[in-house]
Amino acid sequence: TQDIARVMSGDSWDDLRPSKPKDFVGRDMLIQEILNFITSVQFKKTQTRNFAIVGPSGWGKSSLVLKISDISNTRKLKNCSVTAIDTRSATNLTFVNEAILTALKDAQQQGIIPNLIDLKIDNTSNPLSSQSIEMAFDYINNSNILIVLVFDQFEELFYKDELLEIFNKIKELSFAIDAKQ
């Protein structure tokens, strides 16, 4: 198995780590643009299922992700769960499967997906075809629910040759999510 690290905020506003959502200021138009995209996916107004936040190091991308997650998790964005995973914790190919499970279990803890579904991946090469994952996806699709999984610090996968296969696995996941809509 693979330990999954979540994106964590700093302790105070002047910490060099990502800011706490309550300390995050500005970027209102960008926040609204992302929320509009999430809503358009949720209500099937777009076929696109992937997005990227691009910018130089230190410009607040991780803080923005935590802010979006907070908006979702405080129910300001209905029937949506956002899970932000720190890609720097990736060490092997099970990382992607564990990230999927983490996002779905977060949604269960928030009451968005029923606890009746025992989430597990029994097909490691094609995790979305695992029986419980397919059941969760059916429930999600029929209920206008959206589960957002963010791979933060994604660029780390480009810097280490040993992580290239994890990049490829995330790419496959992105294509599969798009295909399943």
Residues in helix, %: 40-55%
For the termini, the CA-CA separation is 28 Å
Shape: globular
In order across it, which strands form the biggest sheet? Answer: 1-2
Spans of at least 5 consecutive residues whose pLDDT stays below 50 are: none
The ordered H/E elements are HHEHHEHH
Mean pLDDT: 89
Number of strands: 2
Major sheet, described briefly? 2 strands, parallel
Broad structural category: mainly alpha
Which percent range describes the beta-strand content?
5-15%
Any idea what the radius of gyration is? 16 Å
Count of helix runs: 6
Explain the layout of strands and helices.
Blueprint (H helix, E strand, L loop, with lengths): L27 H15 L18 H13 L6 E7 L7 H16 L21 H12 L3 E7 L3 H4 L4 H17 L1
Parallel strand pairs: 1-2
Features:
6 helices, mainly alpha, globular, 181 residues, two-stranded parallel ribbon, 2 strands
Describe the 3D structure.
With 181 residues, this protein is mainly alpha-helical. The chain has helices at 28-42, 61-73, 94-109, 131-142, 156-159, 164-180; strands at 80-86, 146-152. 43% of the residues lie in helices and 8% in strands. The chain has a two-stranded parallel sheet. It is globular and about 45 Å long. 29% of the residues are buried. The mean pLDDT is 89.
